[in-house]
Design brief:
This protein is α/β, with parallel strands linked by helices. Helix content is 40%, strand content 16%. The protein has 16 helices and 17 strands. The strands form five sheets. It has an eight-stranded parallel barrel with strand order 2-3-4-5-6-8-11-14, surrounded by seven helices. The protein has a three-stranded mixed sheet with strand order 7-9-10. Strand 12 and strand 13 form a beta hairpin. It is globular and about 55 Å long. The site of 4-nitrophenyl beta-D-glucopyranoside (PNW) has 12 residues, from loops. It comes from Nonomuraea cypriaca. It catalyses: Hydrolysis of terminal, non-reducing beta-D-glucosyl residues with release of beta-D-glucose. Keywords: Carbohydrate metabolism, Cellulose degradation, DNA-binding, Glycosidase, Hydrolase, Polysaccharide degradation, Transcription, Transcription regulation. GO terms for molecular function: beta-glucosidase activity; DNA binding. Belongs to the glycosyl hydrolase 1 family.
């Protein structure tokens, strides 16, 4: 049996986030977050707050080397400011002890979208003060957990948090104003930079950002639709790439907003929120860039198209559906988008080490008495791992891969119907059962590689 192996020391694991699994939303003094307000009465999630031991045991049995979790800000600062709530921090203390006893390396994310409601009431991310409160919070968490966590991530996917939270309103806090989305994005970048500085000053050994990076393609690039790539298409691709990707990459890794994005920001929000010195803070060097990859954005020029509120400034750009297999959520499955992203990042930002911090998919699983069958998830992960391996062969510096996610969980505005887990959760009983994909992933980890060559899902021709 031939094995497509991965580099020695390649880190295998899973990612989760606090609000999506913990539940226990008022335990031990936790305050409300914007997601409690936005999706009231659904927050028991996986009751991980009480079942973390079982969940760590599951990860151990599956052979996970690393676990990326997020800390719930409103557990630590129920009112957003003031004195840290030790009872809330104690939960992560217990979790870390359990992880380390199981031989699993913890990666901690500080902000995975659960802003304390009190900070939203005081202005939320459109307010600059929130970035400073984030730095205070980073210090408090590091003080308690810094002896056992050596890799820290600041803000998860600022594009989603800023542009779905304050631009389209599809995510908490449900506001829909382009100006607020841009100022929120800047303040999340500032929070990242202030957080990295604070973590370093406190002695953290590795700190980084997690960005949702999508390759942006035109239909002419991903398939032959009989339409040549026009200069207008190329401009549409560049505009969406600036909004989705370079808006975050360039300030963090180059200390400047992309020149082609500045007029777009200025038209929507002015530039008064970008203070002198901010970009210097935001570009504080990082050790690792977390890459979340799910699906590409596919666009072409279409003059009559109105702007999409999640992409202010996108008038004249059509977001296209492409004839490829999709997940249950309807997200196109394009594995070599991951190769493109990893190659591009290692070419454009060669100093930065990469870690795939999220990749995964929701499917309709077949639940039977003898197991949970999810062949589509196995194919999805396998194809993305082959794509990752290709990028590594081409020289990309990728230190590991974390599946999104360990457990079926609370998928934000979509609630419980979306199943991204390697492990099935029966929400009536909280019973956990590993799916076929979990067992398959365990074997990949054991041999540090893939074996059988499965028939590949027919994919579109791409530029990769
Ligand atoms: C990521 N989009 O969210 C998050 O980091 C996870 O918490 C989430 O559960 C997972 O992916 C699956 O959705 C995204 O609209 C949410 O492009 C929305 C988008 C991308 C990522």
């Amino acid at each position: 049996m031939s094995i497509a192996s991965f580099p020695e020391g390649f880190v295998w694991g899973v990612s989760t986030s606090a609000f999506q699994i913990e539940g226990a939303t008022s335990a031990d003094g936790r305050g409300p977050s914007i997601w409690d307000t936005f999706s009231a009465d659904r927050a028991e999630a996986c009751d991980h707050y009480h079942r973390y031991s079982e969940d760590v045991r599951l990860m151990k049995d599956l052979g996970m080397a690393a676990y990326r979790f997020s800390v719930s800000w409103p557990r630590v600062f129920p009112e957003g400011t003031g004195k840290a709530n030790q009872a809330g921090l104690d939960f992560y203390d217990r979790l870390l002890d359990e992880l380390l006893a199981a031989g699993i390396t913890p990666y901690a994310t500080l902000y995975h979208w659960d802003l304390p409601q009190a900070l939203e009431d005081a202005g939320g991310w459109p307010s600059r003060d929130t970035a400073h409160r984030f730095a205070d919070y980073a210090v408090a968490v590091h003080e308690k957990l810094g002896d056992r966590v050596d890799t820290w991530f600041t803000v998860n996917e600022p594009w989603v948090a800023a542009f779905l939270g304050y631009g389209s309103g599809g995510h908490a806090p449900g506001r829909a104003f382009a100006a607020e989305a841009f100022t929120s994005a800047h303040h999340m970048l500032l929070a990242h930079g202030l957080g990295v500085r604070a973590l370093r000053a406190a002695g953290a050994s590795k700190a980084g950002a997690v960005l949702n990076i999508s390759p942006v393609m035109t239909p002419a690039q991903v398939s032959d639709l009989g339409r040549a790539l026009s200069p207008e298409d190329a401009e549409a691709v560049a505009r969406i790439d600036a909004l989705a990707n370079r808006q975050f990459l360039d300030p963090i890794l180059r200390g400047a907003y992309p020149a082609d994005l500045l007029p777009v920001i200025e038209r929507a929000a002015g530039l008064g929120h970008v203070h002198d010195g901010d970009l210097e803070i935001i570009s504080e060097p990082i050790d690792v860039l977390g890459v979340n990859y799910y699906t590409p954005l596919v666009v072409q020029a279409q003059p009559s198209e109105p702007a999409d509120p999640a992409f202010p400034g996108s008038a004249g750009v059509l977001f296209c559906t492409i004839p490829t297999a999709v997940t249950a959520m309807g997200w196109p499955i394009v594995p070599n988008g991951l190769s493109l992203v990893l190659r591009r990042l290692s070419e454009e930002y060669p100093e930065t080490e990469l870690l795939v911090t999220e990749n995964g998919a929701d499917f309709v699983d077949v639940v039977t008495g003898d197991g949970i069958h999810d062949p589509d998830r196995i194919s999805f992960i396998e194809e993305h791992l082959r794509a990752l391996r290709t990028a590594v062969e081409d020289g990309a510096r990728v230190r590991g891969y974390l599946v999104w996610t360990l457990l079926d969980n609370l998928e934000w505005a979509d609630g419980y119907q979306r199943k991204f887990g390697l492990v099935h959760v029966d929400f009536a009983t909280q019973r956990r059962r590993p799916k076929d994909s979990a067992l398959w992933y365990r074997d990949v980890i054991r041999r540090n590689g893939l074996t059988e060559t499965r028939p590949r899902r027919p994919t579109l021709e791409t530029v990769a």
